[in-house]
Amino acid sequence: MNSIQRRATRAFLPLFFVLAVLVPAPGIISAQVDEEQLRSYMEQVRNETGVPGMSVAIAIGNELVFSGGVGFAELDNKVPATGKTVHNVGSVSKVLAVIPIMQLVEQGRVDLDATIQTYLPYYPEKEFPITVRQILTHTSGIRHYNGREFGPYGLLEMRHYDEFEEATELWRDDPLLFEPGTHWLYSSHAMNLMHGIVESVTGVDFEEYCRRYVWEPSGMLSTSFDVPSRVVQNRGRGYIRDQNGVLVNPRYADVSYKYAGGGMLSTVEDLVRLGIALNRGVLLRPETVEEMYRPQLGASVQRFVPNREPIPLEHKQAVVWWIRTDAQGRDFPSHTGTVKGTRSFLMNYSELGIVLALQVNALPFDSAKYGMAIAQMLVTGMN
Questions:
Q1: Torsion on CA atoms 153, 157, 163, 164, rounded to nearest 10
Q2: At residue 286, what are phi and psi to the nearest 5 degrees?
Q3: Rounded distance, CA 271 to CA 185, Å?
Q4: Single pTM value for the model
C-alpha cells in the first residue's frame, strides 16, 4: 500500500463508519492511485491536449492527500506548475461567491425568494419580477455576455470598475429573454449580482467579506480577487490558440465587472480546502449545504435557445452548483470555469469524502471530463 492509500484509508475510516450506520449495505470506497500513477496520468493528459501546465489537488476524508502539478505555470520563464499555482478560476468563482449568500440566508438577512430589488434598488423593474433564487439557478431571463456590452474593440472590458453598481450598467437595462422561472439560460451577468447583494446587506466590501467569512476560516490564504495591478505570488498565466494552433497570450481583460461570476484568483489547494470546510460544517450548517446542493428545477424547465425550441438540460441545477452524475449513477456537485486562457474544475463527492480540483492554462480543454476521470481512478465503486 502506497503513501496516498495509507493516508486515504486512515482519513476515510470515520466517514465510512458513518455511512455504514446510515446506509444499508454500503460499498467499499478506497483510493486507488498513488502519486506516481496520478502524475503519470496528468502528463498523459498534458501531452494529449497540449496544455502547458496542469495542477490537481485531492482531499479524502477531509485530509489533503495530493497536491501537485506537471508542466509549466507560465511559458515566458517556464515556472513549474504546482498545487500552489495561482490562476483566475473563472466561473468556479460562482461557487465561492454563493457561500456568503447562503450565510446571509442562514442569518435571515437574505430571502432566496425575495425579488432582487429588495437588496439592489438600482436594478430596474422588468416586465416580470426576478427572485434571488432565479438568478442563482440561471432561470432569471437575464442574458449572458454577448460581447457588444463592452463597446468597440471590447474597450470597456479593459477598464477597471471600482463600484459594482456602475459595472451593471453594461447590461442591466436590456430586456429579459424569457419569463423568469420558465427556462434555463446560463448567465454570468445574473450571477454577478451576488456581489451587490452581499455589499448591500452587510455594508462590507465584497472581497473583505469573502476573506473574513469564507477564505480565512477555510484556510484559503492564496485566494483573492483578480486585480491586475496587484503583485500576486505564484501567479500563472493562461493561453489560447491562434488560427494556426500556436499558443499565444489572450487579450487583456480586467474582470472587475464580474468578481462573483468569474473574477477570483485561487489555487487547486485552496479550492479543495473550500470543499473540506463545507463538508466539515465550518462555513454553513449541514441543512444549508443540503439546500444549496438540492436540485432546484422542475422537469419542465429546459435550456433556452434563441429562435429555436428549448432543449433538455444535461445536468441538474442546484443553487449555483451543477449536479453531475458519475459512471456509477452517483450525483455530485461541481462547477467549471473558463477565463483568460485558463480552465478550472471543482467537484465535491461529499457522500464519498472526496474533494477534487483541477486547473490547466490553455484552451480548449474539457476540465470536467478529465476531473471526473481522475475521480473515477480514486473510486473502486460500491458493492
A1: 120
A2: -55, -40
A3: 26
A4: 0.90
Residue found by looking up cell 463527492 in the block: 349
- State residue 272 phi and psi, 5-degree precision: -65, -40
Q: Is 64 helix (H, G, I), strand (E, B) or coil?
A: strand
* Cell triple for 363: 484552451
CA distance 219 to 199: 23
Residue of 165, 152, 142, 164 whose CA lies nearest to 263: 164
- What would the grid cell of residue 17 be? 463508519
Rounded to 10 degrees, what is the CA torsion of 92, 329, 19, 322? 20
- Cα 92 → chain centroid: 2
Alpha-helix residue ranges (DSSP H) falling in 33-86: 35-49
Q: Which residue has the cell 444549496?
A: 292
Return the C-alpha cell found at 240.
Answer: 489560447
Look up residue 379 and give its three cell numbers.
Answer: 473510486
Residue whose entry in the numeric block shows the C-alpha cell 429588495? 118
In this structure, how many other beta carbons lie within 10 angstroms of the beta carbon of residue 204? 15
Cis bond before residue 180 (omega within 30° of 0): no
| 52 Cα distance to chain centroid | 22
User: Going residue by residue through the chain (383 aa), what tens digit of pLDDT does each one get?
Assistant: 444 433 333 333 233 222 222 222 233 344 545 789 999 999 999 999 999 999 999 999 999 999 999 999 999 999 999 999 999 999 999 999 999 999 999 999 999 999 999 999 999 999 999 999 999 999 999 999 999 999 999 999 999 999 999 999 999 999 999 999 999 999 999 999 999 999 999 999 999 999 999 999 999 999 999 999 999 999 999 999 999 999 999 999 999 999 999 999 999 999 999 999 999 999 999 999 999 999 999 989 999 999 999 999 999 999 999 999 998 899 999 999 999 999 999 999 988 999 999 999 999 999 999 999 999 988 854 33
How far apart (Å, rounded) are the C-alpha atoms in residues 70 and 52? 8
Is 3-301+314-378 a domain of CATH 3.30.200.20? Answer: no
Please give the Cα distance from 111 to 251 (Å, whole number): 39
- CA angle 379–265–210, rounded 5-degree value: 95
